[in-house]
Specification:
Blueprint: H1 22-28, H2 30-47, H3 56-60, H4 70-82
Helix pairs in contact: 1-2, 2-4
């Protein structure tokens, strides 16, 4: 992120101490991975759908092909957006 705006501190703002690139901040940071690894089982339990912890649908507002009703997909999408 510091390449985009040189006034920014170059390390991850989540406190892991690694270089805070765009990909790192949103996907690769251990703190972010831990967050999604906690969120997806909760959403799976709420919806009864087996979801793998892939944050891309949440971060990019992508539809997840759950092989179920449109309503289930919308509920999962809403929960991911809320997370």
């Amino acid at each position: 992120m510091a390449k985009i705006n040189p006034s920014l501190f170059p390390l991850c703002w989540k406190g892991c101490g690694k270089l805070g690139s765009f990909i790192h901040i949103w996907r690769k940071c251990p703190h972010v991975k831990n967050f999604w690894n906690r969120v997806f089982p909760i959403i799976s339990a709420i919806t009864g759908q087996s979801l793998s912890p892939n944050p891309a649908p949440a971060l990019l507002s992508l539809d997840m092909d759950l092989g179920s009703t449109l309503h289930h997909s919308q509920v999962v999408g809403s929960l991911l957006t809320t997370a």
